[in-house]
Amino acid sequence: MPNLQVGPTVQGYIQRAKAQRRVRVAVVHPCSHDALAGVVEAAHEGLIEPVLVGPWPKLEKLSEEAGLDLKGFERIDVAHSHEAAARAVVLAGQNTVQALMKGSLHTDELMSEVVKQASGLRTARRISHVFLMLSASYHKPFLITDAAVNIAPDLLTKRDIVQNAVDLLVDLEGPQMTPRVAVLSAIETVNPDMRSTVDAACLAKMADRGQITGALVDGPLAFDNAISAAAAERKGIHSAVSGEADILLAPDLEAGNMMVKQLVFLGQAVSAGLVVGARVPIVLTSRADGAEARLLSCALAVLAAGARSRR
Amino acid sequence: MPNLQVGPTVQGYIQRAKAQRRVRVAVVHPCSHDALAGVVEAAHEGLIEPVLVGPWPKLEKLSEEAGLDLKGFERIDVAHSHEAAARAVVLAGQNTVQALMKGSLHTDELMSEVVKQASGLRTARRISHVFLMLSASYHKPFLITDAAVNIAPDLLTKRDIVQNAVDLLVDLEGPQMTPRVAVLSAIETVNPDMRSTVDAACLAKMADRGQITGALVDGPLAFDNAISAAAAERKGIHSAVSGEADILLAPDLEAGNMMVKQLVFLGQAVSAGLVVGARVPIVLTSRADGAEARLLSCALAVLAAGARSRR
Questions:
Q1: Residue B197: CB partners within 8 Å, gap ≥ 6?
Q2: Is A127 touching B (CB cutoff 8 A)?
Q3: Does the pLDDT of residue A81 top 70, yes or no?
Q4: Of A66, A192, A304, B165, which has the highest C-beta tally within 10 A?
């Protein structure tokens, strides 16, 4: 199994995004150095056309202190972070921008505007979060979901989380892609005392019945059986997903969050986060992200927005 | 931060265990090639003095086929795996053996004998499982608990899980050790919608109040804040545990299990499992364990049993 070259793969996404038509992105309250520097970098790289939505005096001062040139960037002056979130969501609802990017406000503050019925951004689906993971120990990029938005999803929410991730991966990789989804648990058998195993059985059947489309879904699978065909073999598991999983569905936010952070902090993986299931992709970067991860998140949003505009 | 050299550290545990007085270990139903080979290897290494408890004709046949020499090994002939579990537990209750080792029977079959009131092996504590993890990405060995026995522990069970892990680490490292325990969640703040954060706050306070002893306990901590002082710093967290965690308490079995397997299968970590909280340590190895992990598990049981006998 050839291992993934992480650096070139990141660059691959970025180059593909740059080759697309530029996407207008409303950047919500980029009032910290990291947030503003990230936007400037993505714009200078030719990845996005930013619309800065924030209190202008604050942004002006920050850009001067940090030596960041905001010339030529579209700007919408608002009083505070709350208004920034509300205005940015309106821009997305009107299709004036094709993606949103969180700045230095709290995730909840942005998301509560996004999920309002009047926002025009909601779909029939629950909104969820995906991390694209690039690890030198696995032979291809994969998604971990949901490690950031849905705390303890029930079965129907998990269904939406899976479908959102599947749709994103097809947007990223093209319509020939049929993502393989591993529904993770601690064991491979169904045990009514462990809800994730029951949900896994249900999700696999939902894919059989067309309640989840465009994906091969199997579970319950323990982590090793999901990512290693040899491990699955040893347990006598015959699954089209084992060893080839593209999407790992975590049983809950905690398990997902720990997997992502462990891979990044002990495994030198690169991760990039995106909120999906709304009408536009939403870039969520964290303070801990490096420049590479921030650009990658933008690139994913651009690729996803581009695929949507062509549908 | 110097990285851990995994190989020498494993050998260090094994050498220390070999330097101790030999420990008698009842090996329960070692009727698969892996299980029997593991025992023979540990005995020949001078780690343990095995008492084989299993159906003798079966063991004889297996040893001949596999070319494993059982000469000199004490043996107790029983009819089947269930009787093997029951007899081994009696030997431990009588202090005829100082540790148990699971062979090729199901974990539940062995554990249901151990937890019976009449076994004499139960203590006031809940029984729990620990994995000792050796990763080249972290600067010291650490424990992940409970990734194998308690599915969804409540607060009092988590208290016992923590105390069991603390006691084991002190047994392994000596009485000068004050283990640092990170109670993991997905976030660092208390949120009543995420039970692990509430439990974490309670466990930290229980350590303050002497309901957990001999340890520094802090939480809720996200994975990165537990193992990286720099990550904690960025979040403004001041904790004696951050970056120096010796024990990671998982919120539930699923999260723990995924962390362990991810570290082993994507991070090339070595793990060794042990059941603690009973009067004797119980070695649980899995089919996926290599020779190194199997010997390490034995070494941990020997060190733990030795420390107990000196108390």
A1: B185, B187, B189, B190, B191, B219, B220
A2: no
A3: yes
A4: B165
